[in-house]
Specification:
29% of the residues lie in helices and 28% in strands. Helix 1 runs parallel beside helix 3. The protein is an alpha/beta fold. It has a single domain, classed as Nitrilase/N-carbamoyl-D-aminoacid amidohydrolase, CATH 3.60.110. A hairpin with a 5-residue loop joins strand 12 and strand 13.
Length: 273
Amino acid sequence: MSKIALAQVRPELGDKEANLNKMHDIISKTDASLIIFPEMFLTGYTIRDKIMALSETLEGDSVKTISKMAKDSGKAIIVGMPERDMDKQGILYNSALVALPDGSVSTTRKTYLVNFGPFEEETYFSSNGPVFPIYNTPVGKVAVIICFDIFFPELTKYYALQGVDMVICISASPSATREFFEKMMVARAIENTIFFAYTNLVGTENNMVFWGGDALIGPRGGVLAKGPLYEEDVIEVELDLSELDVARQFRPTIKETRGDILSQLAKLYDIEE
């Protein structure tokens, strides 16, 4: 068994140094092998016109600092950040930075941007292309989705069919959407017989109130850990990968997933098979 830590914490808006200090403090106090921070935690979510100035490439100073934290501690770290494309000037992504203990860094970019209600992500970000990385971490094989991505079950299904042990959703979900996320994290775990980890911002940014509620859901839908609502906390929980085999014997949803139906779905959207 290995341990993960889910950090539901409030970022200092626009202050990367302060947020890096918060990360370092949490990482130094836990013996978890994987520490997960929420969507856009490095800068805060509602930074708007400051986003280009605060964004970084994978060669940025904050990225190097986080990589050093991972290497020095021997722990894997996942944190949300605005990523600037190294090759395409002016292109930004809402990304999850993944820093591994060997010093390597890479990102998963948000696939489905939110551009309704109070959200205006398409104003600032480009969406993910056909790149869906999977990471070998100290707690197993994991993939990352970002907030609104949870509403699209085909994305989590893809990762499950690729053999991940856990899908991680980092989020900046305001209080009005709490009920949706609490239901869908359980559904994504059950329908794919995987562990599903969720970490969310907490606090208020520009009248947007984030509800926290970090959770780890087991592959049979059990809530293995749950953070408090509207409060900062770090939730530490053991991950027993043997539960995956048990779940898949009782509910073989991965084995019974039908490629012909997925092909028909692709045709509906004029996607090449």
